[in-house]
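Whether sequence alone determines local backbone shape is best considered at the level of individual chains. When preparing material for the folding task, we compiled for one chain both its residues and its backbone structure tokens. The sequence in question and its structure tokens are set out directly beneath this paragraph.
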Amino acid sequence: MNSCDEMYNRLTELFARDTLLMDIFKRAQGLAPLSYYIGAGCLVQTVWNELTGQAPGYGISDIDIIYYDAADLSYAAEDAMVAKGRELFKDIAIPVDLKNQARVHLWYPQKFGLEIKPYTSLEAAIDSWPTTVTSLGARLELNGDWQIYAPFGLNDLFDLILRPNKALIREEIYAAKTLKWKSKWPELKVVPW
């Protein structure tokens, strides 16, 4: 087994031991057959907690679930999915945020002041996330298989390294995110912009 396989196995074993995450992964299966991933922060922060000796759930402020539905880009369609998510995750203590990545380009300019092209897939969206370590999506298939998408690999995650992914992010956003994370996990090593 090569180190990449070992890291993926270590990641999924760590997810499987985390009671909250496994509950989220299993409930998210209710979104099938829609294409989705649980992404970024909650996954990464679960690993950081394990590596730094923090309690499970420490520092996790929300659970991001992304899906892709280019057939209906309306706010109403996304709102209906958000309502379905509220039902699926109704008694989870941490807020769950569902977003259709096919319609991000419609609201991104107003929120972040930057025009972006429409994403063509969930993976294209993850490819643009702000750091190499948070460019991570995972789901547990109904058959028990894990689907992990990590376009920059898992080395930075397990080495506690924050590195900018300059595909979309601006320097000030990277600085704010890394400052916030480092305040909670001081062991993190920040690669300068």
Summary: Residues 112 and 169 are 10 Å apart (CA to CA). The two ends are 34 Å apart (CA to CA). The first strand starts at residue 36 and ends at 39. The helical segments are 3-17, 19-28, 41-52, 75-88, 104-112, 122-127, 155-158, 171-184.
